[in-house]
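Quick one, tokens below:
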């Protein structure tokens, strides 16, 4: 079997992502061989082709932390040819070959059978949307209800943010969407945002206050950095922040005051190493009661051959929503 893949290689001090042909040498170890229908573009994929991006240790590699498709061969009774599946996270696309290829082989314990979602819808959700769902699940587990007050979503125009706005609005929450994209207000309102505000803190040069006015009951934050510090100081008594990202920086310049004077909780969200049973259960919910209502608005589709342009937009912080990468028949 010979097939096409986008391979990232180090060259001239940079990283070049280009189409190559390969076979068994492109497939990893594992029980499930998948004909990839779609991958998607995530912030981590952009880091994978950035020199010193910190996510890939060894090149060459086929990036793509998400892949959805159809099982073509299985060495376990758990999966059979024809099953529609998604695999994402774990080592995919960072320390073993990922989804930017026509075929992939993955361990059965990383594979999720799709229920109620097409391979395209599942790719539209992808790691970013799954992380949004996990963030919402963590807040609900904390006891958050729509009666508690408005919920803030940061990086709202991005992948995690857009899906978080959609899911929270389905659940009946009042949503304040924070974005640096001045043209995104109508789109975010369509997804369910009740108020659209700029990036936080509003004045990035102001001296950070350990505690400010309580503005939100909770937050889904994929920005991190000073923004997260500001949000923690603005959450109401007993509220929580589900934190998953670092587009605004990895440092967290805060104090203990929000935690010890307001009982605020900082809930860490990790989709990458999430145990498979929890992962499968959340995907089942995403195909049923938690299904995002606006996937067609949230996700654009591009052929895999345009992946370099899509990842460049993510790196520039100007990406909107999610981009599904069409793999089957698109090389
Ligand atoms: N913990 C996990 O398991 C997990 C999983 C998935 C993603 N993540 C992380 O979550 C973050 C978002 O991922 P994504 O796939 O949603 O990326 P994305 O689609 O590129 O969205 C990121 C958004 O962050 C905002 N942003 C970008 N640069 C910024 C800056 N300098 N300051 C403040 N805001 C900025 C922008 O939103 P606006 O245009 O609305 O301002 C951008 O659209 C990344 O850090 C990613 O690594 C973590």
């Amino acid at each position: 079997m010979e097939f096409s893949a986008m391979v990232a290689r180090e060259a001239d001090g940079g990283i070049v992502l280009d189409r190559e042909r390969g076979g068994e040498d492109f497939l990893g170890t594992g029980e499930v061989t998948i004909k990839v229908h779609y991958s998607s573009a995530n912030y981590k994929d952009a880091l994978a082709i950035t020199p010193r991006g910190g996510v890939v240790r060894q090149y060459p590699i086929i990036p793509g932390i998400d892949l959805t498709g159809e099982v073509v061969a299985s060495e376990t009774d758990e999966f059979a040819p024809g099953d529609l599946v998604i695999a994402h996270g774990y080592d995919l696309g960072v320390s073993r070959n990922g989804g930017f290829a026509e075929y992939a082989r993955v361990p059965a314990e990383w594979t999720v059978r799709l229920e109620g979602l097409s391979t395209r819808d599942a790719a539209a959700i992808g790691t970013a949307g799954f992380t949004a769902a996990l963030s919402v699940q963590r807040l609900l587990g904390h006891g958050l209800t729509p009666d508690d007050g408005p919920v803030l979503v940061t990086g709202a125009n991005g992948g995690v943010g857009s899906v978080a706005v959609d899911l929270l609005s389905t659940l009946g929450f009042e949503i304040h969407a924070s974005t640096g994209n001045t043209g995104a207000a109508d789109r975010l309102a369509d997804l369910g945002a009740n108020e659209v505000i700029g990036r936080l803190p509003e004045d990035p040069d102001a001296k950070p206050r350990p505690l400010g006015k309580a503005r939100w009951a909770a937050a889904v934050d994929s920005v991190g950095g000073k923004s997260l510090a500001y949000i923690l100081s603005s959450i109401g008594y007993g509220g929580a922040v589900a934190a998953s990202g670092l587009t605004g920086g990895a440092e967290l310049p805060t104090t203990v005051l929000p935690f010890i004077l307001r009982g605020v909780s900082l809930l860490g969200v990790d989709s990458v190493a999430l145990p498979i049973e929890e992962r499968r259960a959340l995907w089942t919910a995403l195909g049923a009661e938690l299904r995002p209502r606006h996937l067609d608005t949230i996700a654009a589709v591009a052929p895999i051959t345009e992946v370099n342009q899509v990842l460049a937009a993510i790196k520039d912080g100007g990406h909107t929503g999610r981009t599904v990468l069409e793999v089957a028949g698109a090389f």
